[in-house]
Structure prediction request, 323 residues.
Amino acid sequence: MKLGTFTVVLGDLPLDEACHFLADNGVQMVEIGCGGFPGKAHCDAAALLADEGKRKEFLDTIHRHGLEISALSSHGNMVHPDRAIAKSFDEDLTNAILLAEKLGVPGVNTFSGCPGGSPEDRPPNWVPCPWPDYFSGILEYQWNEVLIPYWKEKVAFAEAHGVHKIALELHPGFCVYNTKSLLKLREAVGPQIGANFDPSHLIWQVMDPCVSIRELGKAGALFHFHAKDTRIDPVNTARNGVLDTTHYGNELERSWIFRSVGYGHGEDYWKAIVSELRLAGYDYAISIEHEDSLMSGREGLLKAIQCLKNVLIFEERGNMYWA
Prediction:
């Protein structure tokens, strides 16, 4: 496994300074945001696609610090019912795929997206339950008429450009948000669809990340990994449950908040996750994503690096001399 970082946490630094900081602290891989919600602070894909010299400078900057790119990330809602919004997100994802081809990056990270509840809707409509019955009708429309057709087309495009992995982050608010929904889309579209596995979004759904890793691993669907933690507040959860729309900044009233690795759960918890990843055959990037509202980006990142250095399994398996 390799210690990585999603560089948006250092978006206030030029790429060269960000890479210098990460390399000095033992990071081996970088995940680069190049559109959609992550923004383009370190990578404007359209600009790099238009200029071979800029692409070379971009890669040289990363390689000069001994780093590798684990993925290009363009998280967005490409099936948003507002066509202008969907078009913008889709263009960013398309450019991320084309840039991954040029740079030799094996995959891109994004969200599945969430359509409206009907062709007439203007906002997206995320459905978390099957009843009343009209919710089931919404799900049929979203999956069969929008989501599956979109991803069949986008996967074919990516394949044509040598990008064989599209890693979807399991995230409530989008159609793919848990183990079952990821495997459902993968079955419908093809093995190019896999997971950008982020335990933080599963923890607050009261899922066990290790169980999900095992099932996705058996399907060969673990493509990338986000290292981010969540702490569930037992009092607020007992009162209101985990479906919480309280603003992220109102931490005292929320049922859960995102934390840096080690601050939602201890090292033993993360060692179990890393061991399950090894059992599943995943030996790629463990990419730190900082969204801890109780810490600055620098401190949260450094705390996560420190914890993960004790947790990750860096070397290949040895021979079983005892068996």
Observations:
- The beta strands are 2-6, 29-33, 68-73, 107-110, 165-169, 193-197, 222-227, 229-232, 256-259, 285-288.
- Residues 134-160 form the longest helix (27 residues).
- The two ends are 25 Å apart (CA to CA).
- The chain is about 40% helix and 15% strand.
